[in-house]
Q: What sequence folds into this?
């Protein structure tokens, strides 16, 4: 990949002189003459480096500070560490250097001595800006432009399309995203010679996940890691959450971030896992669930709760009363208008109907959960306090990774303080809607009816269910196990309704997701209706 430079210089003489020299040195150059056109180019295309004049007005107009504005705009519109910056200064503009340094400008060139500085030629200066660790350690622009990228069961277009709709500032140009993905890999693996890239299922979230094996020709070593990539602001938040909630607080099987880099629009983190065998053997919970019996899955759940996440759940503090409704609405983004829109889009026959009637379930009517919860605070049956603690926040089947029975987590975008049962109800919902692939809606109704026979947490030990289809028996046993370990987190509380409230909002949240097949979508609506009935909620 050729280094792409945006040259911002309003004087035609200087623009041609500098631009021609950059092209002679082998760079790909776009030259513009104003702040406005520079921002237009940055919106359309990816650049490794922006070289700009501090003042873009008349030669002696020292009041013009468009270059300063450009540096600020780059930082505000894009990742500040996504584009390297070199500024040209005139004889009376030296005092602006400190301010520009604070804006991420790493190198300065005297406009009249631009081909050399401190004995270094122009190519060396550009290389320093892109690669040398002069301002930060490590330098965010350091990259291997000669990195050999071997794509196996995925393409750059696949990767770009996976995240396109969630990238802030994306203008529909997939080539722009594929260019940034290439640059991102070159920055993440700047010290390696080649990488093998393979896809990893990443669920319905806004980011993508790949498995990368990186090789060094000098050492002969290879290392397999997990890379999560997506919108740079979202990845920055995930990295921040990892640093706050995971780095020093997870259990023995810790998730480690090896690298964190960004380009103007995109960001990525490289995950490794303490105590793991080679990462290429790791499988997510969805794959593990498919190929293992319930006893093995229950062992994984035990390790997830009592080893991987033990430091989160045991630091629950003192119980206190708070609104579970407000908590789940805030964490899931479940406003009334969002649910009404989902009902109109995915369940048109249930719009303006206070009662749910499913032809597959004879003689059963349920409250429509969208109208039953509209504008209401769903409370616990008893005035008992409950607990808050740090939680993963999106504990679905793709964010749990397993290797020889050991368990790790990825995707910390939603990690933070929340209802102590938040992770348990999320994973149970994922098991029932995403991993249970058998039966029809009537079979699923009988399955949910058995699970809803609990009133107190201790009732979980006496839950029973039998079905000719072993897929339902397996899912039932896994859900029962989740409820048993959830009970341990809230003792001495015994009221099961707070678990049911969490299930209700997670099933409501599932109503709006496009990837669900019609059966799973009907399952979510039916379960939410059954939970409303159990909790005494009516439209």
A:
């Amino acid at each position: 990949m050729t280094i792409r430079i945006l040259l911002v210089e309003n004087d035609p003489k200087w623009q041609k002189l500098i631009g021609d020299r950059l092209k002679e040195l082998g760079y790909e150059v776009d030259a513009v003459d104003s702040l406005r056109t520079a921002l237009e180019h940055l919106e359309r295309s990816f650049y490794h480096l922006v070289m700009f004049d501090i003042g873009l007005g008349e030669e002696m107009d020292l009041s013009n500070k468009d270059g300063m504005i450009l540096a600020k705009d780059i930082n505000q519109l894009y990742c500040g560490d996504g584009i390297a910056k070199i500024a040209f200064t005139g004889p009376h503009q030296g005092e602006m250097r400190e301010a520009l340094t604070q804006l991420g400008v790493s190198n300065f060139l005297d406009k009249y001595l631009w081909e050399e500085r401190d004995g270094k030629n122009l190519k060396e200066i550009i290389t320093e800006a892109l690669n040398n660790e002069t301002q930060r350690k490590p330098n965010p622009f350091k990259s291997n432009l000669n990195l050999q990228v071997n794509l196996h069961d995925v393409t750059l277009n696949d990767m770009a399309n996976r995240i396109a709709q969630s990238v802030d500032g994306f203008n529909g140009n997939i080539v722009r995203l594929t260019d940034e993905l290439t640059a991102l890999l070159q920055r993440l693996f700047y010290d390696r010679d080649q990488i093998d890239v393979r896809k990893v299922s990443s669920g319905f979230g806004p980011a993508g996940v790949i498995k990368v094996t990186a090789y060094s020709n000098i050492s002969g070593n290879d290392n397999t890691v997990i890379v999560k990539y997506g919108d740079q602001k979202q990845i920055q938040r995930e990295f921040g959450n990892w640093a706050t909630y995971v780095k020093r607080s997870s259990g023995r099987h810790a998730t480690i971030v090896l690298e964190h880099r960004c380009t103007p629009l995109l960001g990525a983190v490289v995950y490794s896992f303490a105590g793991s065998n080679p990462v290429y053997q790791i499988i997510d919970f969805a794959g593990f669930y498919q190929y293992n019996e319930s006893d093995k899955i229950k062992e994984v759940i035990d390790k997830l709760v009592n080893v991987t996440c033990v430091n989160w759940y045991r630091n629950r503090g003192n119980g206190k009363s708070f609104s579970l409704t407000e908590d789940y609405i805030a964490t899931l983004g479940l406003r009334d208008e969002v649910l009404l829109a989902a009902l109109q889009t995915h369940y048109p026959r249930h719009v303006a109907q206070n009662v749910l009637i499913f032809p597959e379930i004879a003689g059963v009517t349920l409250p429509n959960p969208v109208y039953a919860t509209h504008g209401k605070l769903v409370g616990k049956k008893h005035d008992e306090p409950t607990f808050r603690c740090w939680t993963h926040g999106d504990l679905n089947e793709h964010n749990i990774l397993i290797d020889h029975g050991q368990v790790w987590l990825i995707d910390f975008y939603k990690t933070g303080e929340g209802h102590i049962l938040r992770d348990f109800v999320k994973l149970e919902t994922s098991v029932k809607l995403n991993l249970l692939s058998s039966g029809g809606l009537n079979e699923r109704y009988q399955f949910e009816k058995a699970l809803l026979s609990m009133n107190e947490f201790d009732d979980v030990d006496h839950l029973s269910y039998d079905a000719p289809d072993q897929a339902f028996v397996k899912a039932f046993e896994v859900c029962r196990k989740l409820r048993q370990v959830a009970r341990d987190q809230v003792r001495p509380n015994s009221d099961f309704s707070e678990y049911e409230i969490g299930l209700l909002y997670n099933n409501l949240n599932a109503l709006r997701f496009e990837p669900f097949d019609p059966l799973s979508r009907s399952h979510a609506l039916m379960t939410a209706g059954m939970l409303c009935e159990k909790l005494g909620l009516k439209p």
